[in-house]
Design brief:
Mean pLDDT: 83
Low-confidence stretches: none
Number of strands: 10
Radius of gyration: 34 Å
Strand order of the largest sheet: 3-4-8-5-7-6
Helix content: 40-55%
Strand content: 15-25%
Number of domains: 2
Distance between the termini: 29 Å
Order of helices and strands: HHEEHEEHHEHEEEHEHEHHHHHH
Largest sheet: 6 strands, mixed, barrel
Oligomer: single chain
Shape: elongated
């Protein structure tokens, strides 16, 4: 019965004060839209950037040769430390925490020629696990370099998607012949298109990959240009890098604490920075949205205070007739929560519509696709509920504390 009376009172005020009610609801609606959209775009941008960063690979480090910076055991500084394929094989066996590893021999500006086009590109000689480490996935019907290619020194080649389009425009390159430095190779795979915003030797979509054994037979190159290593998990990478230093320091006689002896790019550190940065970024965005929502809540409080002034005599009469303070407080709280709920529901619906329509603007490559997670939605509802409670509590308490005699004397 009390709820019915409160609803009747609410709709009566709605008819009498249309503009005031609309502006109150609009403030809450705008704040809700701000919170939901800022959360959605922050999450979408984070996932887009992380996905692009993962295009380089997950939990990997790229290792280049370096120059010693300290004298050691009577030997001078400035000695070059270069890994061989034998070193990489032994490190894989002796250093714990390694999931995959591969040397990478790189030929720069290599002439590639198909029956349609010819151009220059980077061609790398790698082990089969290189593709899995670097998130280089083959299209359906193709594959990456395998162990048999390695053992038999086959002339097989895997090419990036952009390279494939230029060499074989409008055709399926898999199974076709491609000349590398004038020697025929068979295209065994084409890379699935992926997002990638970082690299060390050009984007994978423009590169080609052949077995390392085949590369060595072509170039007679003893030392790899670099080594790629993948740890079993994020926490294992530091131990893997320390293992590299210990093994190579013992073999090449340099100080294992000499960090200049090897040049290492640990991408897992980049992931940690990304997650920390975007966590702070999302908190900043949510803070802005919450401030907007709080502004709407202040508007609701002001409106309820105005309503209190208008109903002072009415409240005095009700209390004189026996209405309890809890009843008066409930009516004010009910109206406040109902106003907030309507504004929040409309704002939430409009925000979802905007999120659904955003991909039509073709801006997802720059900003990502906005995403609303269930947990974040619950958080927004919780914030809205707290603001609704606080916005209505103080006017309601003030109304409940009115003394009937004083309330009636005011009018």
């Amino acid at each position: 019965m009390l709820v019915f009376v409160s609803l009747k009172q609410f709709f009566r005020d709605l008819r009498n004060q249309k503009l005031r009610t609309f502006m109150t609801i609009f403030g809450i609606m705008w704040g809700t839209i701000s919170v939901i959209l800022l959360l959605a775009f922050g999450t979408g941008l984070q996932e887009h950037q992380v996905k692009s960063f993962k295009g380089l690979g997950e939990q990997i480090s790229i290792i280049w040769s370096g120059v010693t910076s300290k004298p050691w055991n009577g030997l001078p500084r400035g000695r070059r430390v270069r890994l061989t394929e034998e070193d990489i094989t032994n490190i894989k066996i002796s250093v714990p925490g390694i999931r995959r590893i591969s040397p990478e021999y790189t030929g720069h500006s290599v002439m590639l020629k198909s029956h349609r086009n010819n151009l220059v590109a980077n061609v790398s000689g790698v082990w089969p696990e290189f593709g899995m480490m670097r998130n280089i996935i083959a299209r359906d019907g193709g594959r990456f370099i395998n162990a048999r290619d390695m053992d038999e020194k086959r002339r097989t080649i895997f090419i990036g998607d952009e390279l494939a389009e230029k060499l074989f425009p409008g055709e399926d390159p898999i199974g076709q012949s491609l000349q590398v430095r004038g020697m025929p190779f068979v295209v065994v795979g084409v890379m699935v298109t992926k997002s990638q915003d970082s690299s060390y030797g050009g984007r994978d979509k423009r590169n080609a990959y052949i077995p390392s054994t085949t590369f060595q037979s072509m170039y007679s190159q003893r030392f790899p240009n670099n080594t790629i290593v993948q740890a079993v998990d994020d926490g294992a990478m530091k131990g893997v890098i320390d293992g590299f230093y210990r093994y190579l320091a013992a073999k090449y006689n340099f100080d294992p604490e000499d960090t200049e002896a090897l040049q290492i790019w640990d991408t897992s550190e980049g992931f940690k920075f990304f997650y920390t940065f975007f966590m702070a970024f999302k908190l900043f965005l949510v803070g802005i949205g919450c401030l907007t929502l709080i502004t709407g809540g202040i508007g609701v409080t002001n409106i309820m205070n105005v309503v209190l002034e208008e109903r002072t005599k009415e409240i005095g009469i009700k209390m004189a007739l026996g209405a309890k303070r809890a009843t008066i407080m409930f009516q004010f709280m009910f109206e406040t929560i109902l106003l907030t709920f309507i504004g929040g529901a409309v704002g939430f619906a409009l925000a979802l519509i905007i999120i659904k329509l955003f991909p039509l603007l073709n801006m997802t490559d720059e900003l990502g696709t906005p995403i609303v997670h269930f947990s974040e939605s619950l958080g927004a509802v919780a914030i809205l509920g707290i603001i609704a409670f606080l916005a209505g509590f103080f006017p309601a308490r003030r109304a409940a504390r009115l003394e009937p005699v004083k309330a009636l004397k005011l009018f």
